[in-house]
Write a structure and sequence with these properties.
This protein is an all-alpha fold. The protein has 11 helices and no strands. α1 crosses α11. The protein is globular, with a radius of gyration of 23 Å. 28% of the residues are buried.
Length: 265
Amino acid sequence: MLVWSKAERGALWAAVVPLFLLVYGLPIGVIVLASFSGQWNDILPSHLTTQHYADAFRTASFASLKASILTGIIASLAALVCGTWAALALRRFKPLPKRVLDLFFFVPSAVPSVSIGLGLLVAFSQPPFLLNGTRLIVLIAHFMLISAFTYGTVTAGLARLPIDCEQVAESLGARPFYRLRRVTLPLLTPYLIAAFSLSFALSMGELGATVMVYPPGWVTLPVRIFSLSDRGAIFDAATLTTILGAATLIVLITLTCLSSRAMSR
């Protein structure tokens, strides 16, 4: 935007594109190549195979993929409901108390996720709230980590909504719940989809808190990738990383299309 001449733009693109490919493209390309590798002793892999993918969809790794997707969907929906509710409730607060309450939402995202996992492990390892070893504690950990981003996205969306739409509906006698259901939420739809997309992507890649609290029967894909790489099974870990990235990308593209469709209405 700040470069106007064609020569300067061409020089900028010539510098940025190789840098982008080096920083982003090279690591992704190496991971994808490793997922097809049977052996890698030279610059490029040899004995290319799809056996790693076949094994991934037949072994416990497929259960980990399902666990990650279910955890992401459930935690993101819960964060979307609570974050939207909180954003709607706090938008009419005075600036000072609103900033104080905002802080409570953003604290979990400001501390290391391992600390969140450790806190949940200590808090829910004794009766009457004995959740250690259950799937629920994983969902709570993900909810705590992503709810701040949902709340922030919806709050930003509310700040951009035209106030006169709700005022016109109110002047015509629309009750608060009717205004919320027929005016506010439809206008917020693109932001709600964006909030869910961000929350889902963060949940799918979350490792720090999950590795502290996950039960044996609910191993998410990032935890399994970490376990495989720790054991030296790099090719299997690369395969699961590729699958994780592809699954997340498919969901995000779908949600982006839905958001674009909602904004065009």
